[in-house]
TrEMBL record:
SMART domains: GuKc (SM00072), PDZ (SM00228), SH3 (SM00326)
Family: Belongs to the MAGUK family.
Ranges for domain PDZ: 82-163
InterPro entries in the record: GK/Ca_channel_bsu (IPR008145), Guanylate_kin-like_dom (IPR008144), Guanylate_kinase_CS (IPR020590), MAGUK (IPR050716), P-loop_NTPase (IPR027417), PDZ (IPR001478), PDZ_sf (IPR036034), SH3-like_dom_sf (IPR036028)
Record Pfam families: Guanylate_kin (PF00625), PDZ (PF00595)
Name of the protein in question: Membrane protein, palmitoylated 7b (MAGUK p55 subfamily member 7)
Domain SH3, residue spans: 171-242
Keywords (A to Z) from UniProt: SH3 domain
Keyword Cell division carried by entry: no
Recorded superkingdom: Eukaryota
Lineage: Eukaryota, Metazoa, Chordata, Craniata, Vertebrata
Domain Guanylate kinase-like: 311-493
Length: 526
C-alpha cells in the first residue's frame, strides 16, 4: 500500500512527474476513500519505481557522511573520503599495516583483480580512519579484521587518500625539536616582534615555510591557542649567531694546570693522571674547539605510542661527579618496582660507599683499555646490547636507566632502544660549591681543594652540551638534589603518559648518508 498525500490535495497529476502519471494510468489501480485520504494499491514493479523516483528526487542515494572531526585543519578538510563497498563472499583483496611513525592504519597492498582493486576507490598508502563508523585510532591490524568480517551487506570506510609523490614532497610536514631558547623580545633583529614565535629548548615546532633564508615560519605543536604561523630564526641565522657569540669557546687556549696527580679532591683527584689528561685531551679534540656545529633544530617525527610498548630506555649522561649515579640511586630507592638500572664498566677506583656490580663493574685501567681497542669495542657494544635486550625482555614495564659517556651514546642511539637521553648538568659554579660542600662528600679527602674539579666539571658540561646537545631530550640541572630528582621523576611520568612521542628522524633513515645529514642539525634538507 502506497500512501500518497499529494493525491489528496492535487489529484493524480501531482504524483511525481508526468511520465509517472502516464505510467500510473497504464497500471491497474484500486483507489479507496477513507477519512478523506486517498489510498491506492499498486503492483510491485510500479511501487518500486515510485520509491526510486522519490529517492532520486530527495537525493537519498547519497551516503550519509559522518561529520568532519573537529581536529581536522582547514587545509585537510577536503582530503577525507568515504568509500562504501558492497560485501560479497570474496575477501576485499587488500592488506593493511600500522605505520610505525604515525600509528596510522594504512593500506599496504591492493591485490590485482580483487574487489578493492576493481572498485578503483581504495589505493595503496591510503590511511583508514574508520570502518563502518568505528574509529581505528589505536587499533592494531588484527583488531580490524573482525570489524570487516562482522559487517553485513556493505563496508563503509573513512579514508584519507594517499598523496601522490609530487604532493608528498610538497605536503610532507616537517617537525623539528628546538635546541635553544628563543625570546623575540630580546632579539633586536626580528622584522616584526608580534609576528615572532617564542619557544624553549625541547619544544616541537612544525616548519611551514623555509622560503626565507633568515626567517622561517613555524607553528608551535602543543600550543592550541594559535594556528597562525610565526617567524623563527632559520638554522643558518642561528648558527651564525652562535658562532659569533662563542669567542671564549673558540679562542680560549687550553688551561695550563698544575700536574693533575699532585692534587686530590672529591672526585677527579681520585682519577689517575693518565685518565685526567685523557679526559682533557678528549675535550679539546672533540669539543667546542673542534668542528662542532651549533645546535639549532633537529628533525623529529611523531610516534604514536602503542599501549603495549615497553618504556623507553633512559640514558643519563653528564660530566664526571655531577651526580648521575646519585640520581639513579635515589630513583631506585624511591620506586624499586618501577625503575631498574644497567651496570656500566669503569676504570676509576671504587669509592667507599660503592659496591662492585651495583654502581659499576670496577675494572683495571688495563682491562678498560682492552675494552676500548677496536676489536674489543665490538664485543663491548655487543655486551651492552645483549644486556639491554635481556633486561627489556625480562621486566617489560620497568623503566631502565643506563649511564654512558657521551661518546658511547651512539651505541644505544638507535631505533631499537629508542633512548630518552637526559643530560645531567651542573648548576652555576656558586651553587655547585654550596650544594657539594653542604653535602660533605669531600669528607674522605681531608685538606683537598675541589675548586679545580668544579671548574673541570663546568668545562666538561659546556663541551658535552655543544657537542652532543642535539641528542639530549631533557636537561636536568643538578643543584639541589631533591629538586633535580623531583624534576626527573615528573619528566619521566610525562614521557610515560604522552600518546605522541617525538623521535629523531635519523632513527628511521635507511641510508647512512641521510642519517648523517639529518644528524648534522638539518643541513641536509635546507
Ligand atoms: N645535587 C647534589 N648535591 C650534593 N651532592 C651531590 C649532588 N649530586 C651528587 N652529589 C654527590 O656528588 C658525589 C658524586 O656523585 P655521583 O657519584 O653520583 O657522580 P657521577 O656523575 O655518577 O660521577 P661518575 O660518573 O664519575 O661516577 C657523590 O658523593 C654524591 O653524593
Amino acid at each position: 500500500m502506497y500512501v500518497c498525500k499529494t493525491l489528496q490535495r492535487h489529484g493524480w497529476s501531482h504524483i511525481g512527474s508526468f511520465r509517472g502519471k502516464q505510467l500510473l494510468m497504464d497500471m491497474r489501480i484500486t483507489t479507496q476513500c477513507q477519512n478523506g485520504m486517498s489510498f491506492f494499491s499498486l503492483d510491485r514493479p510500479f511501487q518500486s519505481l515510485l520509491y526510486v523516483h522519490d529517492a532520486v528526487a530527495q537525493r537519498d542515494f547519497e551516503p550519509a557522511l559522518p561529520s568532519v572531526p573537529d581536529d581536522v585543519l582547514e587545509e585537510d578538510e577536503d582530503s577525507v573520503k568515504i568509500v562504501s563497498l558492497v560485501k560479497t563472499k570474496e575477501p576485499l583483496g587488500a592488506t593493511i599495516k600500522r605505520d610505525e611513525s604515525t600509528g596510522a592504519i594504512v593500506v599496504a597492498r591492493i591485490m590485482k583483480g580483487g574487489p578493492a582493486d576493481k572498485s578503483g576507490l581504495i589505493h595503496e598508502g591510503d590511511e583508514l580512519k574508520e570502518v563502518n563508523g568505528i574509529s581505528l585510532e589505536c587499533k592494531k591490524p588484527k583488531e580490524i579484521i573482525p570489524l570487516l568480517a562482522c559487517s553485513q551487506n556493505e563496508v563503509k570506510f573513512k579514508i584519507i587518500p594517499a598523496l601522490s609523490k609530487d604532493e608528498m614532497s610538497n605536503k610532507k610536514k616537517l617537525f623539528v625539536r628546538a635546541l635553544f631558547d628563543y625570546d623575540p623580545v630580546e632579539d633586536p633583529t626580528i622584522p616584526c616582534q608580534d609576528a615572532a614565535l617564542a619557544f624553549k629548548r625541547g619544544n616541537i615546532l612544525q616548519i611551514v615555510s623555509m622560503n626565507d633564508d633568515t626567517w622561517w615560519q613555524a607553528l608551535h605543536i602543543g600550543d592550541s591557542s594559535s594556528n597562525r604561523a610565526r617567524l623563527i630564526p632559520s638554522q643558518q641565522l642561528q648558527e651564525r649567531r652562535v658562532v659569533l657569540q662563542r669567542p671564549r669557546a673558540l679562542f680560549k687556549p687550553p688551561a695550563v694546570r698544575a700536574p693533575a696527580g699532585s692534587r686530590r679532591s672529591f672526585r677527579l683527584g681520585k682519577k689517575s693522571r693518565w685518565a685526567r689528561e685523557r679526559a682533557r685531551s678528549w675535550r679539546w679534540s672533540t669539543g667546542v674547539h673542534g668542528l662542532v656545529c651549533p645546535s639549532t633544530y633537529t628533525e623529529v617525527i611523531p610516534h604514536h605510542k602503542d599501549s603495549k610498548e615497553r618504556p623507553r630506555l633512559v640514558v643519563l649522561v653528564g660530566p664526571g661527579g655531577v651526580g648521575v649515579n646519585e640520581l639513579k640511586r635515589r630513583l631506585l630507592i624511591s620506586d624499586p618496582e618501577r625503575y631498574g638500572v644497567t651496570v656500566p664498566y669503569t676504570s676509576r677506583p671504587k669509592r667507599k660507599q660503592e659496591n662492585e656490580g651495583v654502581e659499576y663493574h670496577f675494572v683495571s685501567v688495563h682491562t678498560f683499555e682492552d675494552l676500548l681497542t677496536p676489536y674489543a669495542n665490538v664485543s663491548l657494544m655487543y655486551k651492552t646490547s645483549s644486556i639491554l635486550r635481556n633486561i627489556k625482555t625480562i621486566i617489560p614495564d620497568t623503566i631502565y636507566f643506563c649511564s654512558v659517556s657521551p661518546q658511547s651514546i651512539k651505541h644505544v642511539y638507535t631505533c631499537e632502544f629508542k633512548p630518552y637521553v637526559v643530560f645531567v648538568k651542573p648548576p652555576r659554579i656558586e651553587e655547585l660549591r654550596l650544594t657539594r660542600r653542604r653535602a660533605k662528600f669531600i669528607c674522605d679527602d681531608v685538606g683537598t681543594n675541589p675548586e679545580e674539579d668544579f671548574e673541570d666539571m663546568m668545562d666538561m658540561a659546556e663541551t658535552m652540551e655543544s657537542h652532543y646537545g642535539h641528542l639530549f631530550d631533557k636537561v636536568i640541572v643538578n643543584g639541589d638534589i631533591a629538586t633535580a630528582l623531583r624534576e626527573l621523576k615528573a619528566d619521566l611520568k610525562k614521557l610515560e603518559e604522552a600518546d605522541v612521542q617525538w623521535f629523531p628522524a635519523e632513527w628511521f633513515c635507511s641510508s647512512p648518508t641521510t642519517a648523517q645529514r639529518s644528524c648534522s642539525h638539518l643541513s641536509g634538507w635546507i
